[in-house]
Design a protein that fits this description.
Layout lengths: L1 H41 L7 H30 L1 H18 L6 H29 L5 H28 L1 H10 L4 H7 L7 H7 L6 H8 L4 H8 L11 H19 L5 H29 L10 H24 L4 H5 L9 H27 L1 H22 L5 H14 L2 H8 L6 H23 L2 H8 L6 H7 L3 H8 L14
Helix pairs in contact: 1-4, 1-5, 1-8, 1-9, 2-3, 2-4, 2-11, 2-19, 3-4, 3-9, 4-19, 5-15, 5-18, 11-12, 12-19, 13-19, 13-22, 15-16, 15-17, 15-18, 16-17, 16-21, 16-22, 20-21
Length: 500
Amino acid sequence: MMASSQTNFGKYMALTAALLGWLFDGLEMGLFPLTARSALLDLGVEVNDMPRWLGVITAFFLVGAATGGVLFGWLGDRLGRVKAMILSVLTYAVFSGLCGFATSPTQIGILRFIAALGMGGEWSLGVALINEIWPGKSRAFLAGLIGAAANVGYLIIALVGGAVIANVQHVREFFLQSGLSESWVDYLVTSENKGWRLLMMFGAAPALITLFIRMFVPESHRWEQERDKGATAHWANRDLLAVLVGACAACGIIVLWALEDLPVALQIGGTVVGLAIVTSGYLFPVIQYLRRAPEVVSSTNPRRGTLSLMLIAACLSGVALLGTWGTVQQMPPWSGSLHAAPSDAASQVQIWSAVGAILGTILAALIADYLGRRITYFLLCLGSLVIVNVVFRVTDTFDNQLLLLIFLAGAITASFYGWLPLYLPELFPTRVRATGQGFGFNFGRVIAAIGVLQLGNLKALFTPYGWSQGEIFSVLAYIYVAGMILIWFAPETKGKPLPE
């Protein structure tokens, strides 16, 4: 009876820690869009150069998350889910908080890249841990909670950030009355910088949960069984050099598109070569592991089967992530250009989008458990394609109708983040689960990074033909058509247990 009680306690502690981790993931993702304009202006970026810096910093953040998904996924399969989770949370908390002390846009880009390493890793580790600790009948609802938790964090930072921005003078007076020197208060909060440094420092808050994880969260018994069999010993540190090469190649792609006046042929050719290097580098540790661990490879799970599933997962995640970062994440700044837009338009849009996303992620996982994984993904792509085009093409006024459409867009497009934590763990056996799903989910961020960098090119291409900014953003929504096709090449896993 005591063992059962301890087991149940451990399950709920693991779930609590994972949900907190995902909540802060969402907070991190919502932090920069809210503070970016104020921060870059304060650091000397010209208004005309703002889109380029926003695109580059966002792209580096996405590449960092992709690399972190592989790196910390590897650590999770090698050292254990809990130890790797502590390291990942510390990484994104500390370096996100350090952004508040940045003195140049380049420093923000570098710090955001390192913070994203931990954020990408925490996703894959938490998903693996929860799916291995909780029974199969709970997986759909828990997958929905995973996506919802991240969007709660996105909502929290929108509310907190909006309150700070709207009440800068009150915040200043509070700190002055608390005994901080006027020079420190001027550094943290002014009407000009709108408190971006203070909000960035708030990003260090997740460091507090690492002590909780260390004290109360149990390790996955499935992983411990694989460790006791000696399966985890087949991971080798030297294989991570290939991940470093892949990360450098991904950063090189960003530089190609960030530099002005380069021939398009060179940019496209370099991107193709770079993606091949990134893919090979990120897959290399798994390829080497499978060569060293022949017991993992069987007639039902051949080496090429594991690798092909990782690539399929990456493509499915890439569709969702490019759709999010290329279209939905553009809605807050875009809303400020509409007729009758209030000063807090971006904050309002972010709040309504997050509320919709919380509902959508839970419903998507439950629907996938009822209808099946493939048909649900197809419907999510179809719905996302329609709603994004409606938002960007139908309205040009900031009103209640727009906010309703934003709510629906958040619910439908974010629903993938309830579907993915349900589906990806079902593709991989325990000993490669964290690495496999870490690659599968986070490699899509590299695709999203490249897509985000095309927004400037799309603007230059279509603006002469009279296209509005919203119509240009909607072009990237057609990536969902690719998802509607790709899903039928993926296996259906409804009703099947997690692979051992």
